[in-house]
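Might I ask for a little of your time on a matter of protein folding? Here, with my thanks, is the record as I have it:
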Amino acid sequence: MEFVTKNLDNVGAHIELTRFTAGSVTELHAMLHVEAQGDLFETQFTRLLQAKEALMEMEETKAAKVVFKRYFLSDATNQVPLIEESDVCTISYIQQPPLDGSKVALWLYLQQGTEVSHMNGSTIVKHNGYSHIWTMGLMNTSVDTSYMQTWKTLLSYIDTLKLFDATLEANCIRTWFFVRDVDTQYCGLVKSRKECFVEQGLTPDTHYIASTGIGGTPADPKALVQLGCYAITGFQPEQQRYLYALSHLNKTIEYGVTFERGTLMQYGDRNHIYVSGTASIDNKGEVMYIGDIGKQTLRMWENVEKLLEEGGMGYEDVMQIVVYLRDGSDYEVVKQMFNKKFPNMPLIITLAPVCRPTWLIEMECMAVKEAKNPYPNF
């Protein structure tokens, strides 16, 4: 794993980049940050674009293609109409304000050595018989409850998967649910997702999907739920394994929600781990260290570490981290802790309430490690 940090002092921005190569394919994750200089969104966005241009001119990103992008915004409804987007990849725009004081930050996932195309709002990456399907920004505002919006959005995604001869049960690897006013709207999402999953063959006796369900405001004022998804076709069922870390965590169905703690995907040349949104919780499903942001952060790290270990990895294999805080005033404490533990990691810390009010912090990450498995390379 290669970690690169590039400060663009003339722009007022910086780039955090990880780069991993095995076989003929290179994967890259980049977090782009702009300094808060008291300027308007348009100016900050211009500086972000300059940082993106600098990223694509780096030696490490030569010939790389953007697979997906996520904008973290301070005011999505007013800012999204101002964004002029040149990339045709699938994109997520979500109001989760960066807590460094800026109005916008950007996460990009890029690849070298694969065939990248686009269809119906999805990015499709093809290589060695696999199709990786990234689909972001899904919403449905024809109904007015989080329960029904979740149902209709999932049904729309299921129709998208049919275009690739794929299903939610067999092919979806990772989801993100962003919920407006998570303290009141999350219950409707949970109920709807559970019912939809049962209909699609996802039950406690089969499996669920790695996921993050978190506070986040879509740009459309009528949208209560926004969905992002990652699916794969062309793999064998035994290439996928679910991670539980039962010494530290319980199965989510025990407290009524339906997602896997983490998912391991195995290829001939590498393994991937997708860690779901993880917080300070014990193996009975109870919140630990209520009211203490420092101790909650430490326990969260421990829980994620156990999930990574179960998949044969460690923090040295993590490529990016997204951190969600309920209380923005905890930012300085958390930022100092993360800087000390992960000094070079592509990282974004946002204001995004977790689904339980007593959880002060949550994180998610993706990890990759070279491997030799009896399957086609990535």
About this structure: The domain at 263-378 is CATH 3.30.1330.40 (60s Ribosomal Protein L30; Chain: A;). The two ends are 16 Å apart (CA to CA). DSSP finds seven helices and 18 strands in the chain. The first strand starts at residue 2 and ends at 8.
